C-alpha cells in the first residue's frame, strides 16, 4: 500500500521521466522503480512506470482534474536547488500555462545523459504546442545544449528567461578545475561549471530569450575575490549571454536572492507572456555604459 508522503522533488537519486498537469513520474537511478508525485511534490504512488502512469490517469479521472493548457513553462534549476525556488513563478503563470518541473541528479548524471533525458521527457508530451523555459544556474547551459541537439524541441520553443545563469561557466572555478573535492562535490556535471578555453563549449541560445542577473553595481561586487561587479558567484559580464533580446540588472541582489526578488518574478513572467521584460522598467542594456528605460 502506498501512503502519501512529502518529498523534496528529487535531487540526487531520481530523474523525471513523464509529466502531465504538474504531476511527475520519477525513476530511481539504479532500479526500474518509479514514483508518482503530485504538483505539491507529495508521493502518491510507487512501483513500475506503467503502474504509476495508470495511477496518474486514475487520479485525473477520480478527482475530475481538468486537462492542462497546451502551452507549458519548463523550470530548470541549478545545483542543490529544489522545485520550491520557482514557487512564485508558478503562482504567476499557472492560470495560462502548464507548469513543468524537470528534476535530474546533476551530481550523478553526465550532461549528455541529462540532455537526452530532457528531450525524451518533453517528447513524451506531443500535445504541448509551445514550450517556454525559465532556467537558473547550470540549467541554462543544459538547455542550450539540448536545443542544439533536438530539432523537434526547437520547433516548439516559445520564450526563455535565464536568471542568475552563466554564459560559459563560472570564473570562480577556472583555477580550481582540478580540485578533487570540488569534482566530488559537484559530480558529473562539474566541467560545465568551468569556463571553456575558447568560449565556445556551450552552443548559442536559440529563439527569443531574456536574461536577469544580480550584482552590487560597484567595482567589488558581493565577492571581493572576483574582479568586477558580481553576484557572489557570477561576474556581471559572465552572466550576459550573447543574442539576448533583453536584459535586466537586479541591483543589490546576490546570486541566491535574485530568484526570490518580486521584480524578477514579474519581469520574467511578463517576458514569457509578451516577449518583453516589461514597460516602464529599468532595463540594463550595457552595464559598462548606462542604464536605459524600457519604453
Could you name the key traits of this structure?
single chain, 295 residues, Rossmann fold, disordered C terminus
Describe this structure in a few short sentences.
The protein folds into 2 domains: 1-67, no CATH class; 68-293, 3-Layer(aba) Sandwich (Rossmann fold), CATH 3.40.50.
Structural class: alpha/beta
Name the CATH architecture of the largest domain.
3-Layer(aba) Sandwich
Number of domains: 2
In the CATH hierarchy, the third-tier topology of the largest domain is known as Rossmann fold
Mean pLDDT across residues: 87
Order of helices and strands: EEEEEHEHEHEHHEHEEHEE
Range of strand content:
15-25%
Radius of gyration from the alpha-carbon trace, in angstroms: 19 Å
